[in-house]
């Protein structure tokens, strides 16, 4: 939802006049689509069918890459906001897009932390540690 807000707010401005917003649009749309694909993948329980793929590692790499690229998108978006813009509605939308890009960056960073813990096996609890495969 946060990534959707970023690219929707930028798309509603005259972003084509500023090259910096092209990068923000690319990052936000690209990772929004990939996030939706990962969501559908887990919703359909495809990791159980394709067990040979190291899903925790794939998810950690995806989240880490999204975090790094969203850092660049957030900095680019925030630096390109001009408070003296003659179009006040563009300023408000770009400032809001910068805010939501920061929130999205933080969300992907937290997801990176938790996916790293899942990859290393540090995220188990009492319920999951008691389950064994006796089949």
UniProtKB/TrEMBL annotation:
Keyword Cell membrane: yes
Compartments (UniProt record): Apical cell membrane; Myelin membrane
One Pfam family this sequence matches: MARVEL
MARVEL domain sequence ranges: 1-120
Predominant location category: membrane
Highest taxon above the source species: Eukaryota
Membrane topology annotation: Multi-pass membrane protein
Regions crossing the membrane: 20-44, 56-81, 96-116
Lineage: Eukaryota, Metazoa, Chordata, Craniata, Vertebrata
GO molecular function annotations of the record: structural constituent of myelin sheath
Protein name listed in UniProt: Plasmolipin
GO terms under cellular component: apical plasma membrane; myelin sheath
Keywords on record: Cell membrane, Membrane, Transmembrane, Transmembrane helix
Biological process (GO), any one: myelination
């Amino acid at each position: 939802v946060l990534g959707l807000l970023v690219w929707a707010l930028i798309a509603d401005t005259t972003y084509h006049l500023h090259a910096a917003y092209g990068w923000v649009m690319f990052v936000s749309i690209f990772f929004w689509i990939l996030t939706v694909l990962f969501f559908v993948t887990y919703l359909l329980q495809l990791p159980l069918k394709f067990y040979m793929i190291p899903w925790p590692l794939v998810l950690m790499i995806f989240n880490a890459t999204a975090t790094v690229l969203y850092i660049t998108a957030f900095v680019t978006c925030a630096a390109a906001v001009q408070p003296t813009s003659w179009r006040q509605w563009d300023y408000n939308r770009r400032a809001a897009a910068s805010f939501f890009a920061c929130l999205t960056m933080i969300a992907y960073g937290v997801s990176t932390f938790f996916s790293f813990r899942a990859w290393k096996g540090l995220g188990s609890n009492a319920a999951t540690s008691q389950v064994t495969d006796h089949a």
